[in-house]
Amino acid sequence: MVGHAKVGWRAQLSQEDLLLWAKLNDVGFECAVPGIVEGKGGALLANQDIARNGTGQQTQLLIVPHDLILSLERVQEHAKADRDFREVLEALGDFGRTARGAILSFLLTQASISASDLTERVCVHSPFTDYIKSLPPELLPTFWTDEELQLLQGTTLAPAVSSKLRSLHREYDMLCETAKHTRWFRAISDSLEFAQWLEVDAMYRSRALDYPGIGHCMVPCVDLANHCAGESTIALYEKDEDGNACLLLRDGKSARKGEEITVTYGDHKGACEMLFSYGFLEQGRESAETLFLSLSIPETDPYRTAKLAVADCAPGCKLVDAGKGAIDWNGDFIWFLCVSAEDGLRFELARTLDSKEDEMQAFFGETELTGGATQLHELLSKTNLWEVYRLRAVAVLQQRVFDQMQMLYSTQEDMEATVHGDRTEVRTSCYEQAKQLRRLEFELLEQAYEDFEKQKNELADTDCVKKYLAEVAGDEQDGVGEADGSPEEVHHESDAEDDFS
């Protein structure tokens, strides 16, 4: 079971104390203040009636000083004045030089130095020491119990959470190993737990913004604003000419005193990503929007290892709900599942002058694939067999969609039979979120299967594919038999081990 860090590892700050902290640190509450919304918890509320008709100066709701923007730059500035933290950051090496690595390690050290059982004073307190106390525990899927995670079996979120937990364990183990000789680690090592690393990851993942002109960062008070997509979004965030973070009222929007001020976390984020990163799905959501399906190269493919070595992209495909029953998809990895030696794909080993190891080189025809799967896609699209390759790709995707639907269907009965609620291992909120995700993903998969069937039939009816199938049928007449003209015949290869259908 995955649980929260032990009680007391970081103190909690009340809404009243947060407001006082913000004012002491020069946060400008122009038209918005922290508040509580039933069912959501912390929120940002209008402190007066506000409206913008699209003319004149923009309405500022909130101004956060540049020094309170928790970015890679701000962490590096703090490290210059904090010898103990600088020692940790340097011990982390390359990880400590990334925005994620620097911010997470900063959050962890700042949270730990205010613990009540700390016997030695380490690191330098900052405004963020108290800011971290205001952040509530997040119920992201990385904190779900084993029984709750079972509810996700068959969804695209299940492998994502498993992968994330493995990644977090690696980061935590690396932190403990590389920082074990630092003064900070010696002071807190007896109370340090993996669950604390889970918490700072949840803080960052659920509140980080890709802020214009700043990059990935956390912005106190602005991060109180809850999500609302589309036209329901009230506000947007920008950086002003002085580098401060500003929350502005959108054109044509208004709010009465006490009403919630909302921003968008991403209008086109898929259901899986919303639950993964923010721990919730919007009520009334009608589509999964997007989902990522992993793809694998068959073990029988003699080029499997070589293809994986040169693909240079994620081994999967992203499906996107394009509306009106249509599905868009993208992911160049699939093109390596659609070509073989018979199509002109080949691999060679070459030894470079500055290396003692052989380097894998891929070629399509006479062109070297230095750009991996993306370049292969470009080359295929310029051949006179482009419709054939597209048909192969759609057929592979349709089968993958079918397999995913089967996984969802086969686990649905167990999911529905799961006892949940008080005094059980499964919280009702987790059960309802998993139930909603499963429904949305199954509906999108059904839509994709039907649309891919339509695409297959349209491609099979093109002159290019008909000509190709006729040539294949002619080659087989003296041996295997005649082709039946079905779309599946487009996957024919000369050897059984090269059959990618």
TrEMBL record:
Region (Disordered): 475-501
A GO MF term: protein-lysine N-methyltransferase activity
Highest taxon of the lineage: Eukaryota
Signal peptide, first to last residue: none
Matches recorded under Gene3D superfamilies: set domain protein methyltransferase, domain 1
Biased composition (Acidic residues): 475-487
Any one GO cellular component localisation term in the record: nucleus
Protein name (record): SET domain-containing protein
Organism: Meristemomyces frigidus
